[in-house]
Specification:
This protein is of the alpha/beta class. It has one domain: Maf protein (Alpha-Beta Complex). Helix content is 29%, strand content 28%. Strands 1, 2, 3, 4, 5, 6 and 7 form a 7-stranded mixed sheet that branches. Helix 4 packs across helix 5.
Length: 174
Amino acid sequence: MEIPLPAFYFLQGVFSKVSEKLVLATASPYSIAVFKTLGIDFESESSDVDERFATRPTDPKEIVLLLARLKAECVAKKRSLDLVVGFDSVGCFEGRILEKPPSSQEAFERLKALSGKSFDFYTGVHLIDSGAGNAVSKLAQTRIQMRVLQDEEINNVRNARGVSTHSCCLWQNE
């Protein structure tokens, strides 16, 4: 699931005046590319957090806040003086949680179902200042309005590696 840029905007002011190293608790090429647009120097490190577990919340807001915290905490344990940021995102459509589709066919079916409709996108961000022992969490909720998509467009988007699906939708922060 891609992260809309508004989820990161609050971080710009936080990191522009710090001297600690900023570490993203992710190895996602897309997340790293999005974060680069902020113009902030950072490193990235995979958290290796298992996102599927028996006691996982079912509410999308709770899921993203919990997973963002777990990812940040996992990396922060290895980074004693750094600022570590973890984040997680899910969509929610008709009461169903939308995460990364496991197959190209499911991606097609999902985009087809969303075509011309709106859904909610949640991003949880958790920042840990390892040196000071402080932490803060934020939640960004974005309402996405998908434009009507033709099958050929859906196939082009799902088959293009590293290409954002932002061209399929409009979003506004809530």
